[in-house]
Amino acid sequence: MTQETAVLSAKPEMALESAAVRKVFVKTYGCQMNVYDSDRMTDALAKDGYVATDVMEDADLVLLNTCHIREKAAEKVYSALGRLRELKKKKAGEGREMMIGVAGCVAQAEGDEILRRAPAVDLVIGPQTYHRLPEALKRVKRGERVLETDYAIEDKFEHLPAPDKAKTRARGVTAFLTVQEGCDKFCTFCVVPYTRGSEVSRPVAQIVSEAQKLVDGGVREITLLGQNVNAWHGSGPNGEKWGLGELLHRLSEIEGLARLRYTTSHPRDMDDSLIAAHRDLPQLMPYLHLPIQSGSNRILKAMNRRHTTAEYIALIARIKAARPDLALSGDFIVGFPGETDEDFADTLSLVETVGYAQAFSFKYSTRPGTPGADLEDQVPEDVKANRLERLQALLLKQQHAFAEQCVGKTIDLLLEKPGRMPGQLIGRSPWLQSVNVDAKSSQIGDIIRVRITGTGPNSLFAEVVS
Ligand code: SAH
Ligand code: SF4
Ligand code: F3S
Question: In the prediction, which pLDDT does 165 show?
Fold first, then answer.
């Protein structure tokens, strides 16, 4: 007799409760880490009979997995909560209960304020305590408003269920896997060290076992995640020190795992073995997200980035020497306090020097509690807007140039999902571009040879090479 049936026969009323289907609607904001966490929370709730729904109105539980990185991101949460309050009221009028939970980085940063400003919220849960979610919901059911935002001492990953085969299959042939969480870098603009806590690396065995499970569920490409993913460190089988390079080697031994990526990296944590992995592992895709934030050394210093533009450029040269077809992506902030026209011109010229395949850029957003918020010389909004527009125009030009330069090339394409037209699939290039190609849906998960024939606004077109 399994443990489950033992429980069933002992407590029939509990069996009834756990058999009832409840629906959870999860809305995810922010970075890939939140995407990963949302799936883990959904998996944890499945044990209590929750199934995921895409229809908010049907949900017994609505979870907002929030982002605190810029003011706008945080504001979105409060306006969503305003709408949810109305829905909760409407459903209560129909005799249906709906619980509202706020997770993620806003929960961590402003938990008390959320409970004060939004009386409809039943539960606030920070990223370090997701494994306590089922228990927290039980407390809500007993009438409590729950705040779980301490930096948990237990390892949440030990307790959160790894993705099972069926769910993995439903989620597709590419997957995220968090290997590291938190940040000790304290860039002066950034909330992450406060919302995600200090750097923690998951142990090798846990990561390998989760990767194997993903592959068993049909995943062909895994992106390792961390706020500073290349700060990951662990121990090998004989207790030797491992960095991300060694971990990638280990993961590349998993049969059927065709592609590996990792994001986001900090330039200071790119060590020799990680660079060598780009040379030695064909599974490791030639695409690297390596943010620098600014092209001005003065601003980099004020940001506490602890690297210079020259070091960054030299680093890229070393990685490209190891993997010549490597393409780069990055993040930029314009209008950090004290940024002058010359500083901004330095950013443009760095972008010209490096040449990005793709990049994200943002106006500096003052975040309460970070050292940047107290700096004088905040840059006026219109100056920030103008700089952002100029930077984005240059980055977009580079993105298009990179796409154009792919035309005529024969590449490997991982077929990922149905395309917009019947008979078409969308695949992923080694450089993370979406590529449209004629193929059968039974081929999803295959890697095929295609020739790039043209470019569209956000994707490429290709034909199969026989
Ligand atoms: N750990 C990563 C990225 C974290 S946040 C790294 O170190 O690069 C993602 C991006 O958001 C950052 O790279 C930065 O460009 C941007 N960002 C962070 N804080 C910001 C702020 N206060 N204002 C504007 N952009 C910000
Ligand atoms: Fe934020 Fe800097 Fe840490 Fe990245 S390295 S998460 S930008 S503090
Ligand atoms: Fe946002 Fe938190 Fe990610 S602030 S970017 S959700 S780490």
Answer: 87
